[in-house]
Amino acid sequence: MSISVDIRKKLGDFSLEISFESDSRRIGILGPSGCGKSMTLKSIAGIEKPDSGSIRIDDRVLFSQEQKINLKPQKRRVGYMFQNYALFPTMTVEQNIGAGLGLSDDDRSARVADMVRRFNLQGLEKHLPGQLSGGQQQRVALARIMAYRPDIILLDEPFSALDEHLKERLQHEMMSMLEDYEGQVILVSHSRDEIYRFSDELLIMQDGHMLARGKTTQLFDDPKTVSVARMTGCKNFSDAKWIDDHHIKLSDWGITLELEREIPKEINAVGYRAHAFEPVWGERQKNCLPFRLSGVDELPFERRYYLHPEKGELICWFIQDNERAQLDGKPDPDYLKLREKSIMLLQE
User: Fold this and answer.
1) pTM of the full predicted structure?
2) pLDDT at 209
3) Which of 147, 188, 323, 337 is 20 to 30 A from 254 (CA-CA)?
4) What is the H or E stretch that residue 137 is in?
């Protein structure tokens, strides 16, 4: 199964223009609030109508401005999960699951019973949404979508309204529930952790446009540009000047890197993730930053160091709780080493 989206829509001062085609089973769309992620999903679902373009699932046209086609949402075979799950508050669990199914009474009852078993909702059939936990509401919402047997499922920031301590467990539960679903799933989120855990393919959006697209792990490992690196969570950047095929000067950090791999001439910036530094005591090694401490934040499961660069923004070094032992009882390191495999060669 594949989806093809090529749409444009203007809403006030905001313009959405996005085009992609994918046969990946799990697609993530990452971007800040207001970048057009939800509008893209609503256009696919038929809740919003694009001004122009087309939307297809396989060879089935959901929308085409040129062909004058705009299928109603109930005809698209697209399951849409809203942020708040959008359960009907006065309907029971079984009524919510069966709502809108164009089936006979017997077939509807059989379909609902199957979904209740599949999503472990036995004993809750007569409960109202207000009597359910957040996880139970999520299962009901997903059961209602799956009862519809959609070709594609759209998840619009389904964990954004949850407390932090619930998010990770419910993310795991949802991924488990979707394991047997053979259709495509698109997850929209501004959380890098959610997207990385869930998606095989990633689209990164900003200001109504697509910044980058590719395999999720590849975009995180090698984002190519400063903008994409920032979106994937990189904290540390320096302007860079190419010297030769294996040397590049980082003007903000006052060091020159020597790399085994070849450095393209067009590289003008370097990024480095806050968790990737290696502390060094004693003599300076290759590709090391002087440890000029600005401050330290102690968090429940992480320690964060902030270092003065030669110029520009503070350099962030974050260490997880299980790594603190290597520093406790020791003086501060003399240097932080940049591991070559973690150095991102970027363009502005």
Assistant:
1) 0.86
2) 96
3) 323
4) helix 134-147
Q: Each residue of 287-297: pLDDT tens digit? A: 999 999 999 99
| Terminal C-alpha separation, the chain | 36
Long-range CB pairs of 53-57, under 8 A, 24+ apart, other chains included: 53/5, 53/6, 53/7, 53/8, 53/19, 54/4, 54/6, 54/7, 55/3, 55/4, 55/5, 55/6, 55/7, 56/3, 56/4, 57/1, 57/2, 57/3, 57/4, 57/151, 57/152
Is residue 162's pLDDT more than 70? no
| Backbone angles phi and psi of 84, in degrees to 5 | -100, 15
What is Dmax (Cα atoms) for the chain?
Answer: 78
Residues whose CB falls within 8 Å of the CB of residue 344, separated by 6 or more in sequence, listed in order? 222, 223, 229, 234, 270, 271, 272
Structure tokens at 209: 């446009």
Predicted pLDDT at 164: 66
State the pLDDT at residue 138. Answer: 83
Question: d(Cα 114, Cα 108) in Å, to the nearest integer?
Answer: 10
Mean pLDDT over 235-264 rounds to 97
Render pLDDT for 133-159 as a digit per residue (tens, 0 to 9). Answer: 888 888 898 899 888 889 999 999 877
Structure tokens at 55: 């939307």
